[in-house]
């Protein structure tokens, strides 16, 4: 038995009730994402070789402002949470790729790079009714003029602290919620209740 066999998603007990894609709204967990907290004064993240939006070997892209995120290469995203604060995320197992990207540009006197992969799981809410579901428990303005694809924000959803981002590529409106494992089950059940009028 390996360590991977012992891993258990914080939503393993409720994910079977999640409605699948294809309807007005769907919900799924993206378990075990690689996540690193990255602090750097001058935000040189996208100046790293091969980190442009076109993937390896491409030119660096523009550095996103706070409240925005950008794709790095083919698998990683950098969410800019503040002037010098980033959350760099990727799929399960991408921790090595994130370290290889960020350690060469880390400022040892000011910056920090911390693996926080166990700190949050991710729920993805998608479909035409996704925004309406979120608006039942989130006070920020989620209208596309204010919160377009590529946006991210730290906020409260039904009294739970989350990082909310609107994805760039999806068949329809899609949002990802980064939530602490200890609150994940509560939030998932709240979402299922809020979705009930759209899922029949």
Q: Total number of β-strand segments? A: 10
Q: What is the element string, with H for helices and E for strands?
A: HEEEEEHEEHEEEH
Strand content: 25-35%
What is the structural class? Answer: alpha+beta
Instruction: Give me the Rg, rounded.
Output: 17 Å
State the share of residues found in helices, binned by percent. Answer: 10-25%
Distance between the termini: 41 Å
The overall pLDDT, averaged over residues, is 85
Helix count?
Answer: 4
Largest sheet: 5 strands, antiparallel
- Record the strand order, biggest sheet: 1-7-10-9-8
Low-confidence stretches: 46-61
The shape, in one word, is: globular
Q: Could you outline the blueprint of secondary structure elements for this entry?
A:
Blueprint: H1 3-6, E1 26-30, E2 34-39, E3 68-72, E4 76-82, E5 85-90, H2 95-102, E6 112-115, E7 121-126, H3 130-134, E8 152-157, E9 160-166, E10 174-179, H4 181-199
Q: What is shown here, in short?
A:
This protein is α+β, with helices and mostly antiparallel strands and 200 residues long. The chain is 18% helix and 29% strand.
Please explain how this structure is put together.
The protein is of the alpha+beta class. It has helices at 3-6, 95-102, 130-134, 181-199; strands at residues 26-30, 34-39, 68-72, 76-82, 85-90, 112-115, 121-126, 152-157, 160-166, 174-179. The chain is globular, with a radius of gyration of 17 Å. Residues 46-61 have low confidence and may be disordered.
């Amino acid at each position: 038995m390996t360590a991977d066999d012992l891993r258990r998603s914080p939503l393993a007990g409720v994910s079977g009730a999640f409605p699948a894609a294809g309807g007005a709204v769907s919900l799924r967990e993206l378990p075990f994402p690689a996540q690193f907290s990255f602090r750097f004064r001058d935000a040189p993240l996208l100046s790293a070789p091969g980190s442009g939006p076109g993937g390896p070997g491409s030119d660096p892209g523009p550095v996103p402002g706070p409240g925005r995120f950008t794709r790095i290469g083919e698998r990683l995203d950098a969410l800019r949470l503040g002037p010098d604060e980033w959350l760099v995320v990727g799929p399960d197992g991408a921790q090595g790729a994130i370290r290889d990207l960020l350690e060469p540009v880390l400022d040892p006197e000011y910056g920090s790079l911390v693996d926080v992969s166990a700190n949050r799981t991710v729920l993805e809410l998608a479909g035409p009714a996704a925004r309406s579901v979120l608006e039942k428990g989130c006070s920020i303005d989620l209208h596309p003029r204010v919160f377009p694809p590529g946006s991210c924000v730290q906020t409260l959803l039904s009294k739970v602290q989350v990082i909310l981002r609107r994805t760039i590529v999806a068949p329809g409106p899609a949002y990802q919620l980064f939530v602490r494992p200890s609150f994940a089950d509560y939030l998932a059940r709240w979402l299922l209740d809020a979705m009930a009028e759209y899922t029949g």
